[in-house]
Write a structure and sequence with these properties.
It is built from 13 helices and five strands. By secondary structure, the protein is mostly helical. The protein has a single domain (44-222), classed as hpI Integrase, Chain A, CATH 1.10.443. Strand 3 and strand 4 form a beta hairpin.
């Protein structure tokens, strides 16, 4: 908005336009509420503690918790995941639906409908889960399993509302971790990728954001900037050896 305001101000000064329509737009934009202004992502160490605690105390929920941490899916998207959505060869998840207020809904936003890359660990965990489901079905004399990846005992989608308030909170307590929201696993996914140097554009597409500016606004703190100290060292200085002896001599005159 600042850049647009400058351009239109220049156009007004040159009498190309009569008034600057973006003159007050910046104020309106700055007053807009910011979602997730306070996020509590896990560090790498905390993520490992969380996963270990899940395996020890709630092993049944290790696959969905790992999926949330390794894919950044929203809870509704996680609950709406089906087996045909997983591309085992190309190693990605096709996100196309969600569970909202107990109903299956399609993702109408083109950015939300996306392909999310899967880690090898997540793929192997999901493959093991599918194998377990198939073995359980065969024991019951059934040849097919539920389409829902994270299915409940009745073969329908998992009720993450109860899981978030019970099993998820129990895992946090047992691990001695601070009380965070389940949605912060999504934030952890993004912040950990950015901390490892992943491009903001890539992380934005994985999250399903409309543009990278949204991603940067939320996660700017976790974008590495290892060269920022080098930048200040390039400022004019009398002690810079790269400029030669002439610089300090001229400056002393």
């Amino acid at each position: 908005m600042a850049g647009l305001r400058i351009l239109l101000t220049n156009a007004k000064e040159k009498k190309i336009i009569r008034d600057n329509p973006a003159r007050n737009a910046g104020k309106l934009y700055s007053q807009a509420p910011v979602r997730h202004s306070e996020i509590e992502p896990f560090t790498e160490k905390e993520s490992l503690l969380f996963l270990n605690s899940t395996l020890e105390h709630e092993p049944e929920y290790y696959p969905p918790f790992l999926c949330a941490l390794h894919s950044g899916l929203r809870s509704g998207e996680l609950a709406g995941l089906q087996w045909p959505d997983i591309d085992w060869n190309s190693k990605f998840i096709q996100v196309s639906r969600q569970i909202m207020r107990g109903k299956v809904t399609t993702l109408k936003n083109k950015h939300s409908r996306r392909k999310v890359d899967c880690s090898d660990d997540l793929l192997s965990t999901l493959a093991a889960l599918r194998k377990t489901r198939q073995e359980e079905a065969l024991k019951k004399g059934v040849n097919v399993i539920s389409d829902w990846v994270f299915a409940n005992d009745k073969g329908s989608w998992i009720d993450l509302v109860n899981v978030k308030s019970q099993q998820f909170k129990r895992v946090l307590r047992k691990a001695g971790l601070r009380d965070i929201r389940f949605h912060d696993l999504r934030h952890s996914f993004a912040s950990l990728l950015l901390a490892q140097g992943a491009p903001v554009t890539y992380v934005s597409s994985q999250l399903g954001h409309a543009n990278p500016h949204i991603t940067m606004k939320v996660y700017a703190h976790w974008v590495p900037n290892e060269r920022q100290h080098e930048a200040v060292n390039r400022l004019p200085s009398l002690t810079q050896t790269s400029t030669g002896a002439g610089t300090s001599q001229e400056a002393s005159k």
